[in-house]
């Protein structure tokens, strides 16, 4: 069986894992720089954060924006596709809090 035959597998690939839900919630409020993300998610290493951001970028869920100003800086933000996950993420949060 392939991912196409079980769409839930695709969804879990995108939102699953220890850090991804926290990344989505942190970026939901707007773009963040790498260090802002790192400080917002206790326990995540820089390497894991970098790897997760690259993977979410590859999946089309996070966009990396480079600003070529006096000092080059980078921000990360959720894509429009990632925002379509909000109802599912809110449902999962409610379920995790025992509200469902």
From TrEMBL:
The keyword DNA-binding belongs to this UniProt entry's keyword annotation: yes
Keywords associated with the record: DNA-binding, Transcription, Transcription regulation
Keyword DNA-binding attached: yes
InterPro entries reported in the protein's UniProt record: HTH_HxlR (IPR002577), WH-like_DNA-bd_sf (IPR036388), WH_DNA-bd_sf (IPR036390)
Any GO MF annotation of the entry: DNA binding
PROSITE patterns for the chain: HTH_HXLR
Pfam families to which the protein is assigned, alphabetical: HxlR
Domain HTH hxlR-type: 6-100
Protein name, UniProt field: HxlR family transcriptional regulator
Organism: Exiguobacterium oxidotolerans
